[in-house]
Each structure stands twice: as structure tokens, then as C-alpha cells.
């Protein structure tokens, strides 16, 4: 009896072992497919160009190519039954005249969100009223607008990537842009706040540069990422099209017009030379990439690649799979940090939800076919004959 109790106790420990949990979550994300049960409906007939999910995984925020804004509630879906997800809120007259290139929830508070548009403006929204309460105007198109997920002393600052070669910081408290960061020689495609340092900001442009800024300094540029770890200041040969980072901010992922994905070690700012192969579409326009969260190991990069989503192992660079389902260029993907779900929006005017297979999957009910293998499955056999 004591041996049985010992074995049960050891098995119970295994279930809560961090490595076991991380591997389980990774295998769930590896098996993503288009949701069989949930269809996301839209009031708009135009392409969705930007999406975001709040930190609690409750609401999906989206903006389209004519400036309309939608909010879908995604945390009350009926599991394994049909869901036709209609917008909880829809605002066709958002104040934006053209394409919404970026839309983001305020961290830890769904009462506020921000949007950046090709009409050369950034708007701060009151979610309850579904109207803009503050508007920042610029001399160039806004390609990206980001809020710090760490909060603290920079939580009121909106970092904006502008086509006039500049990065500007907008203060929601004062209603004015307070900083202008100069270092790019072409349009800035992306900005992202570091997950490691609350004062660190990273930008990427069509000049091939990725720049780290310390917003406390007058000479704010502190590091230019170099693909050869030398002194060239060039991270990619051509436009940088996406920026994303891991949960703890240890690694930064970038893709470029040179069809390369690069992984950067944020402890020293150097290229890790991880080989992702030919991995990106040769396009100057930016796309919204995503990284798996929830302590998945190994971490996965979800990169829009034309009408597909290419999935890569961040540590090894292995091309794991492609997610196919859209019929137009994918503009952005967004990973749900609460449960394993991925959302994507495309020029085909649809938003798709990707999730692990349901119980009707052949792998789970058994139809006589061999179970689907994952890239991280071991090669051991239970057969005595092998």
C-alpha cells in the first residue's frame, strides 16, 4: 500500500511540474486549427487591419480599412457548441478617415484604448461611450501606436511610429506630444515598449534599422541592432516589417523585407544568429506578429506570411507549421494570453479564431488512424519488439 501511495504522490507532483505544464501548453499551441465552433461576424464590409486582446482575455478589439472600430466579447463562448460572435460594440464613424494601422487596449483597463491611423492621427477612446476623447495630430501617417504593458511611470505615454522618420511620445495627461526621437532615415513601421525596462522603447523602420531608446536621456538612442554584431546599424537589408518580444523580454523577434527573421538577445542587444530560413514575405509594409505566452516552452512565433501564418520555434528557428485559412494578405495576429487561442485578421474581410482541436478530433476519439505527431514528441516506443 505504501508503494501505491508513493507512486500516486509522485504522479501528482509530475502534474504540477513546471516543465510538464510548459510542454503541455506548447503542444496545445502546436495543434492550432480554425475553430470549428466559433465564427466571428463583422458589421463592416471592409478589411480588418488591426486587432488586440485585453490582458484578461475578455474582449477582442479591431479596426478596419475605413476607420471603423469593433469590440467582440470572447470570454463567454460556449465550449464545443456553435457560436456566432457578433460585435458587442461597433462604431463606423470613429473619427478616423482612413485605414486604422494600430489599435491597442490600455493595460489592465478596458475602459480606454488607443488607435493610430493613416489619416495622421492617434485617438484615445472612452470604451463606455465608444467615442474619442483625445486626438493627437502629426505631419505623417501613423503606422503604429503602443502603450507600455508594464504600466508605472510610462503608462500614460503613447509611442507612435510615423512615416516622417520620427518616433513621437504622446502624453495622455497633458494632451501633447512630449518627445521626438530622431534616428531613422525612412518611415518608422513599428514601435514596442520593452518588457525588461519600463523606460526602454524599441523602434523599427523601412531603413532597415532597429533602435533602442532610453526616453529619460536627451540623446535617447542607446543601441542600434546590427545583423552582424558589428557597427553597421542595420538589422535587416530593407524594411523591417514586424517586431515582437517574449514574455520576459529576453528575446526580441524581427522580420524584414529581406525575407529573414532574426532573434535578438536583449541582455546584450546582439543577434543570436538563429537560422529561421527564408521566413518572411518581401514587403515593405508592416504586419502584426505574435509570440506565445502563458509560459509555453519552447516559445512560438506566429508570423503573417501572405495569406498564411508561419509558426516558428523561437529557440531553434525550426519552421513548425503553417496555418492556412485566409484568402487574402494577413494584416495582424494576436495571441490570447489567458487561454491558448490565436486570432488573425486579413484583407479578405474576415477575422479567424485558431484553437486546439475539439473532442471530435480523430486524435482524441480514435478512428484507427495514427495519432498526429508534434515536433517535440519523443521517439521512444512502448513495443517490446522494437
Write the layout of secondary structure elements.
Blueprint: H1 2-15, H2 18-30, E1 33-34, E2 38-40, E3 48-53, E4 59-64, E5 69-73, E6 83-85, E7 89-91, E8 100-106, E9 109-117, E10 121-126, E11 131-137, E12 142-147, E13 157-162, E14 166-171, E15 176-182, E16 188-193, E17 200-205, E18 210-214, E19 221-224, E20 240-245, E21 251-256, E22 261-265, E23 270-271, E24 290-291, E25 300-305, E26 308-313, E27 319-324, E28 330-336, E29 341-346, E30 351-355, H3 362-365
Parallel strand pairs: 2-6
Antiparallel strand pairs: 1-30, 3-4, 4-5, 5-7, 8-9, 9-10, 10-11, 12-13, 13-14, 14-15, 16-17, 17-18, 18-19, 20-21, 21-22, 22-23, 24-25, 25-26, 26-27, 28-29, 29-30
List keywords for this structure.
four-stranded antiparallel beta sheet, 3 helices, disordered C terminus, globular, 386 residues, mainly beta
Kindly provide the radius of gyration, computed on alpha-carbon positions and rounded to a whole number of angstroms.
22 Å
Number of strands: 30
Number of helices: 3
Terminus-to-terminus distance: 33 Å
> What proportion strand?
35-45%
State the share of residues found in helices, binned by percent: under 10%
Overall geometry comes to globular
Major pleated sheet: 4 strands, antiparallel
Q: Structural class, judged by helices and strands?
A: mainly beta
- Given as residue ranges, the uncertain stretches (5+ residues, pLDDT < 50) are 361-372, 374-386
Sheet with most strands: strand arrangement: 1-30-29-28
Structure commentary:
It is built from 3 helices and 30 strands. With 386 residues, it is mostly beta strands. The strands form 8 sheets. Strands 1-30-29-28 form a 4-stranded antiparallel β-sheet, with no helix packed on it. A 4-stranded antiparallel β-sheet has the order 3-4-5-7, with no helix packed on it. Strands 8-9-10-11 form a 4-stranded antiparallel β-sheet, with no helix packed on it. β9 (109-117) and β10 (121-126) form a beta hairpin. Mean pLDDT is 84; it is low at 361-372 and 374-386.
Amino acid at each position: 500500500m505504501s508503494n501505491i501511495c508513493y507512486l500516486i504522490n509522485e504522479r501528482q507532483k509530475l502534474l504540477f511540474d513546471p516543465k510538464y505544464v510548459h510542454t503541455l501548453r506548447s503542444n496545445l499551441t502546436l495543434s492550432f486549427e480554425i475553430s470549428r465552433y466559433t465564427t466571428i461576424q463583422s458589421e463592416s464590409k471592409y478589411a480588418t487591419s488591426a486587432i488586440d486582446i485585453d490582458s484578461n482575455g475578455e474582449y477582442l478589439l479591431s479596426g478596419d480599412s475605413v476607420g471603423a472600430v469593433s469590440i467582440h466579447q470572447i470570454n463567454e463562448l460556449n465550449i464545443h457548441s456553435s457560436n456566432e460572435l457578433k460585435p458587442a460594440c461597433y462604431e463606423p464613424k470613429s473619427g478616423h478617415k482612413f485605414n486604422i494601422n494600430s489599435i491597442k487596449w490600455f493595460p489592465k483597463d478596458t475602459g480606454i484604448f488607443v488607435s493610430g491611423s493613416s489619416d495622421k492621427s492617434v485617438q484615445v477612446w472612452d470604451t463606455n461611450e465608444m467615442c474619442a476623447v483625445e486626438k493627437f495630430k502629426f505631419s505623417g501617417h501613423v503606422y503604429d501606436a503602443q502603450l507600455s504593458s508594464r504600466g508605472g511611470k510610462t503608462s500614460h505615454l503613447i509611442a507612435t511610429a510615423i512615416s516622417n522618420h520620427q518616433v513621437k511620445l504622446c502624453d495622455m495627461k497633458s494632451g501633447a506630444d512630449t518627445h521626438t526621437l530622431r534616428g531613422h532615415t525612412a518611415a518608422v513601421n513599428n514601435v514596442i515598449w520593452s518588457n525588461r525596462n519600463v523606460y526602454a522603447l524599441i523602434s523599427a523602420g523601412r531603413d532597415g534599422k532597429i533602435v533602442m531608446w532610453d526616453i529619460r536621456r536627451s540623446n535617447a538612442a542607446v543601441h542600434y541592432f546590427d545583423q552582424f554584431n558589428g557597427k553597421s546599424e542595420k538589422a535587416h537589408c530593407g524594411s523591417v516589417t514586424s517586431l515582437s518580444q517574449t514574455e520576459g523580454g529576453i528575446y526580441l523577434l524581427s522580420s524584414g523585407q529581406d525575407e529573414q527573421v532574426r532573434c535578438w538577445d536583449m541582455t546584450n542587444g546582439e543577434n543570436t544568429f538563429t537560422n529561421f530560413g527564408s521566413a518572411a514575405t518581401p514587403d515593405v509594409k508592416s504586419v502584426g506578429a505574435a509570440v506565445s505566452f502563458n509560459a509555453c516552452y519552447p516559445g512560438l512565433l506566429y508570423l503573417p506570411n501572405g495569406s498564411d501564418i508561419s509558426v516558428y520555434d523561437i529557440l531553434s528557428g525550426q519552421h513548425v507549421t503553417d496555418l492556412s485559412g485566409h484568402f487574402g494578405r494577413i494584416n495582424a495576429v494576436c495571441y490570447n494570453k489567458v487561454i491558448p487561442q490565436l486570432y488573425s485578421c486579413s484583407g479578405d474581410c474576415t477575422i479567424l479564431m485558431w484553437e486546439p482541436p475539439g473532442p471530435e478530433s480523430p486524435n482524441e476519439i480514435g478512428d484507427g488512424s495514427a495519432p498526429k505527431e508534434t515536433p517535440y514528441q519523443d521517439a521512444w516506443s512502448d513495443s517490446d519488439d522494437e
